[in-house]
Amino acid sequence: QVQLVESGGGLVQPGGSLRLSCAASGIIFSRYAMGWYRQAQGKQRELVAVFTSGGSTNYADSVKGRFTISRDNAKNTVYLQMNSLKPEDTAVYYCNAQFARNFWGQGTQVTVSS
Q1: Which of 15, 55, 70, 107 could disulfide-link to 92, CB 3.0 to 4.6 Å?
Q2: pLDDT, position 45
Q3: Pair type for strands 108-112 and 10-12
C-alpha cells in the first residue's frame, strides 16, 4: 500500500518560513520523481517544485529563489523549504510521487497571514 504523508504546514506571518516534509512508503522511492503541488481555494492545483529521480529540480516562477525542494532517498522523504512566504502562498500543499503511476498525499494546509 502506497502512502505519502505530509507534515509541517501551519500558520505563519508574511516573510516567515516553513518546512514541509513528505514521508513515502510502499514505493521504490529513488525511482520516483517527487513533487510538491498546491491548491488555493477556488483555484486549480498547480506545480510548485519537482525533484526528479535523476537529480534535477524545477520550480514554478512564483516560488523561484524562495522555495527549495530536496530529497533524502535513505529516508524516503522529500522536503520543501519555504522562505519569504507571502499571503499568496496560502494553499493546501500536496506531495506527489510519479513514475509508472501517480500518487498523492492527503495535503497539508499552509496559511500565510498577519
Answers
A1: 107
A2: 98
A3: parallel
Give Cβ neighbours of residue 48 (< 8 Å, ≥ 6 apart).
35, 36, 37, 38, 59, 60, 63, 67, 80, 93
| CB proximity list for 53: less than 8 A, separation 6 or greater | 30, 31, 32, 33, 99
The C-alpha cell of 84 is what?
A: 519569504
pLDDT tens readout for residues 48-71: 999 999 999 999 999 999 999 999
Cα–Cα distance, 98 to 14 (Å, whole number)? 32
Query: Phi/psi at 36 (nearest 5 deg)?
Result: -120, 130
